[in-house]
């Protein structure tokens, strides 16, 4: 069974997203809404990591070697200014999208594996991830015209 | 007349229904008059119709004029709002109009100094800069307009069209963002569009009144007089107050929940928990007229009263008592203001009040009303006409049909109207100015250098090189001192226009006297700007096709047609002959709608609604598809949200929680009330309210000078030991520096509460958190403050007339502009 790999993938993706959110909150501390909400969302991601941990454990025994190139890396450090902020949010969006898709896969797998506990965790968490995406989109849409057209 | 400084509410005229549930109560008249010394009623040459501009109640009055000057005011007995009464600010405040320091000529900055000039020079400086900014790509994004809650509909609408259809900028907001943005946000979120469901006459018919973070006794004294008169008459309503301070309203209440500030949502969830658990909701109404009950039920299930008791710092028994009061009333009137709006989880907590009314079916009938209050007299107008972060006519920026309607009405390309995202909110406009992409900031009738959070930062922004600041005001305010161009404006009594109060009542305000010197009405200034900018529509004609207040009102009425705030049945003539008329009013022979949603049908149809909704935690915008999928079919939305701690928490460094607000003697940033002898004398200086226990721990006694410090800054004020709850301190937030001749402390004694407050806002309404800053208090000593310790303190008088007296937990809440 390959499920462990995807749980591992999601586990690491949520963990990476949490750190990226915290880093961006730091880096853009003058964007007060972004700093505040990013910290709150980082807390959510950390919660996801915690809830996934027992399943990572449970399925690891049944797993083969992890295939190469399953993991991608998106966030490579913060940027500055209005354009930098937009690009940072854009990265966060892609990272959250990775989590979002992984939740869907794992939700499907949890049903296939008849693992109701895992399925319950997926149901509880994937909504938060969806809202994270929606918020990032909202914030980027508002920021883009000023950052791309107006600011020098 | 009695001394209305000592007794802000005046004598009682008790009344009430003849039997519980009867609808026959009529609030008796009581006409309040104040004329200048030596002037008798017979000496008055002209009485001119007006309404209050110093709070949102909408008190109707007449202005007395003699020899070309205002000599007094008199309440209008025939008006539905006040039945002749006036508050202390209305009675005394008009004197500020003729203050010796009114601006009478435009000023421009030359060699670092503001010097007098003429209108042509001042306007041409603004226009030349505007044209230059507009000529580059993205020029629209270099303009920011920051207005007020004190202009007239005609003025807001004109400015809204200039900004949104002429320049095409989304960067327009008003100080109503600091004041009533959450009221609008909760009304839209729950009911589909802005607009109060209730009416002030609900006070006449209700059997319970709940004041949610609303210190009505000080913010709307006449509405409070109505409530007090009910309380003294037959079949009086019970009263619940939620406020960390022991306000006059809290003292009157049967039950006062002195919650720790920032915890309203925890309290509301527990109250809804109990109301639902005890089956005290209207199952049929919920089923037929609402969406979201299951989610609400499961969310509040996690918030039992014992949990809220701990979070809020109030006894569980009081929460149960409150739920009992709310759950057993048959006609509940709720009013909500800054204690909710300027606090943590503002929109979520405000929506919970709407939820309470929805699940109990307490909406749209006499006595069962919700008033998501406004603080400023014309706050509703900015929202209706679109000079703030809304589109005119309560239109939805995400609905292409609504944008098309506006484009047709204005005869412009729909692409011109900025609708790619929600209009930019005030804090973001200032952020763009800070970053340098906004290069012209036009500020009308408001004073952000005192009223915005974290003043040291705001002063840095206003002083920034490369930012042209235009200030349009009556006086050289703290903000005007930063301006590159200052435009002298006419005010209430010197110009003509209409405005809407919190219960949707329109009043006309006529011109009683000429403005001083070269001062001009805000409408004339905006019209002049549009003309000089040569703003054109798609056919090449002038964009602005009106030229005076009445033609502007007619244009605005067209824009309101078919929308919830439809005013097409209202005319100047009607307002002059009938007095206050509530919107919607589409028929010239009909009186206007007293209450909304009487049929249980809400404005939530996707084609009609003003918003497709938000996630209340993050402010993430829902899409049109998300919204349609809910199939609202005219049902209201029940929103649910768990409690989350606020943005700034106390700790060892800053152990006290600061709440700020206004009191009965001042308004706005004291621009007018500070220039009114009686009001200034009544509250000449800022102060800090502190509980007896905290004071004792700090070795502070009544009247001691204290330093109050936060991460942002510090103030030096006198302490007043009051009935506030332990752990919480309060400061009135409208004390600035103009009367010291400066724009900020400048090495003098800092005293503006917003030196301390945090830059942070509600994710949905974007209203700043003025009520939750962490601070420390220390007794001031000679060495601590150096020279400024000796500088002029006012006396420690002032503020709430009934502050004294102990309380278990104090409270508060107030407002700001
Ligand atoms: S004092 Fe408060 S409620 Fe009043 S106008 Fe100012 S912000 Fe609004």
Please describe what this structure looks like.
The complex is a heterodimer of chains A (152) and B (817). Chain A is mostly helical. Chain A has a single domain (3-150), classed as Ferritin (Up-down Bundle), CATH 1.20.1260.10. Helices cover 80% and strands 0% of the residues of chain A. Chain A contains 4 helices and no strands. Chain A has helices at 3-27, 32-60, 81-112, 116-150. Chain A is elongated, with a radius of gyration of 17 Å. Chain A starts with a helix and ends with a helix. The mean pLDDT of chain A is 90. Chain B has 817 residues and is an alpha/beta fold. Chain B has 4 domains: 33-98, Phosphorylase Kinase, domain 1 (2-Layer Sandwich); 107-179 and 378-564, Rossmann fold (3-Layer(aba) Sandwich); 181-373, Dimethylsulfoxide Reductase, domain 2 (3-Layer(aba) Sandwich); 656-816, Barwin-like endoglucanases (Beta Barrel), CATH 2.40.40.20. Chain B has 27 helices and 27 strands. In chain B, the strands form 6 sheets. In chain B, strands 6-5-17-16-15-7-8 form a 7-stranded mixed β-sheet, sandwiched between helices. A 6-stranded mixed β-sheet of chain B has the order 23-25-24-27-22-26. The longest helix of chain B has 17 residues, at 119-135. Chain B starts with 32 loop residues before the first strand and ends in a 32-residue tail after the last helix. The relative contact order of chain B is 0.16. Mean pLDDT of chain B is 94; it is low at 795-817. Chains A and B meet through helix 2 and helix 4 of A and helix 18 of B. The structure holds iron/sulfur cluster. Chain B: Keywords: 4Fe-4S, Iron, Iron-sulfur, Metal-binding. Chain B: Residues 1-24, 788-817 are annotated as: Disordered. Chain B: Residues 45-101 form the 4Fe-4S Mo/W bis-MGD-type domain. Chain B: Pfam families: Molybdopterin (PF00384), Molydop_binding (PF01568). Chain B: This is Anaerobic selenocysteine-containing dehydrogenase. Chain A: It comes from Spinactinospora alkalitolerans.
